[in-house]
Design brief:
Blueprint: H1 18-35, H2 42-52, H3 56-108, H4 115-133, H5 137-197, H6 204-242
Helix pairs in contact: 1-2, 3-4, 3-5
Length: 243
């Protein structure tokens, strides 16, 4: 009968060497990538580090260092390509011009004066080849640092410009809001003053009531005038009777 295999249980107190830690982390990452063939995200890396007992701060610092190193490597490769491209342009400019001067020299005189510009320019071309094709690692790293510094300054300048634009937009919006608030306040104040100086017209019902009261007063005044006229006529008749 075949015995059942029992895997060994890791000792929690065991101390692993650096090579063992790298091997364990590498296998853990491979197992994690098996479920995500497109690659590991930052959250996946944090999960692997958390399972391995690595603090998240240490992983973030390592990721930042890797990003910086990768950017420096990309800058160094770009610098090497640019130097080689500049040298090819220089070389393909040198050759046809020297060929043209050599033809002119052959057709005009027997003295080989073309060798002097060829030697002078050739020396400059040789120095250019030294810096373009066989540069030292220190020179490339120094140029990469200068490029990274220029990029950092450009990004900082862009951030300051964006911050100034945001500040200007905020100040403009605040100014518009203040203008709208002041305009609304002045409009409300003018409205209240106008209402106090010129009371609003009454409602139709109030108009009808006042019109009825005015008609009643006019009727009363008319009746009073008729009564006064009747009294005057009676007084006139009494005076005539006495006579």
């Amino acid at each position: 009968m075949r015995a059942h295999y029992t895997p060994p249980v890791p000792d929690p107190k065991r101390v692993y060497t650096d090579d063992e830690v790298r091997a364990i982390l590498g296998r853990a990452i491979e197992r994690q990538r098996a479920s995500t063939p497109e690659g590991l995200s930052h959250e996946d890396l944090l999960a692997v580090a958390r399972d391995a007992g690595i603090p998240a701060d240490a992983l973030e610092a390592a990721a930042d260092e890797l990003t910086t190193t990768r950017a420096a490597d990309d800058d160094e490769q770009a610098i090497r390509k640019e130097r080689a491209s500049d040298f090819r342009i220089h070389l393909f400019t040198y050759l046809p011009i020297m060929a043209f001067l050599a033809v002119v020299n052959f057709m005009t005189t027997s003295y080989p004066w073309v060798m002097w510009p060829a030697l002078g320019w050739g020396l400059a071309l040789a120095l250019h080849a030294r810096f373009a094709i066989w540069p030292t690692d220190h020179e490339i790293a120094q140029d990469a640092r200068h490029r990274a510094e220029r990029r950092r300054r450009a990004e900082e300048k862009a951030r300051r410009k964006a911050a100034r634009n945001d500040l200007k937009e905020g100040a403009k919006e605040l100014g518009h809001a203040v203008e709208r608030g002041v305009a609304a306040l002045l409009s409300e104040t003018a409205k209240r003053i106008h209402e106090e100086l010129d009371p609003p017209a009454a409602t139709p019902e109030g108009k009808r009531v006042r019109a009825g009261a005015r008609v009643g007063r006019e009727q009363e005044e008319g009746d009073g005038e008729l009564e006064d006229e009747a009294e005057d006529e009676e007084a006139e008749e009494m005076r005539k009777g006495r006579r």
